[in-house]
Amino acid sequence: MSAKRTTPLAVRATSAITLTASVAVLAGCADADLAQLEGALADIRQSPGGQPPVMVAALPESQDLAYLYSDGRSPFLPPDEIAQVGADREGALAPDQQREPEPLERFSLQELRLVGTMRMAGRQVALIASPDGNVTSVKEGSYMGTDYGRVAQIKAQEVRVTERVFTQREGWQERQVSLVINENNE
Question: What order do you get walking across the sheet with 149-154 strand by strand?
Fold first, then answer.
């Protein structure tokens, strides 16, 4: 194996090349016009900050469209046959709209729960729990539920309510609903 020897002349040449390259690189970083850069930065610092101005794009012109079915029946109204044949809102079974609503009429019957019955002064009274946590006593003739329900009969384990509902075809109709004590749900 032969070892390559470097001469002092080669070492000096390599050092001179390295030094020249370093000076050239560092000379490119030097900027004689730093005052201009400082001025630009001062202007940026002096300018008001905040949000940039909002640019709103112009919307294209809209065209009016003709509704082809404007002469037809409105989909939000009943058909003519039902409107003509349909019952009027006034009738023998229509509820009294002028009556002051009772507290339990704010809740549907599905939300109300029968929690007990008792006899007071010879009359049967039912205790009804509402979703707001109150228990209200009702007697026959009291109103409850959102469908104009009226207590028709109170038994030991059941309260029968007669509701009045309106349909377009038949007008005001009565339906019977019962609330019973549910011992598993207490």
Answer: 143-144, 149-154, 158-167, 171-180
For 63, 64, 73, 75, the CA distances from 70, given in Å and listed in that order, are 18, 14, 8, 11
Phi, psi (degrees; rounded to nearest 5) at 15: -65, -40
Q: Does the pTM of the predicted model rise above 0.85?
A: no
CB 158 within 8 A of CB 178: yes
Which residue ranges of the chain lie beneath pLDDT 70? 1-6, 26-32, 78-90, 183-186
The answer to whether the beta carbons of residues 143 and 179 sit under 8 Å apart is: no
Short-list 96, 119, 172, 179, CA closest to 145: 179
Q: For 43-57, how does the pLDDT look when each residue is reduced to its tens digit (9 = 90+)? A: 888 877 777 778 888
CB 165 within 8 A of CB 150: no
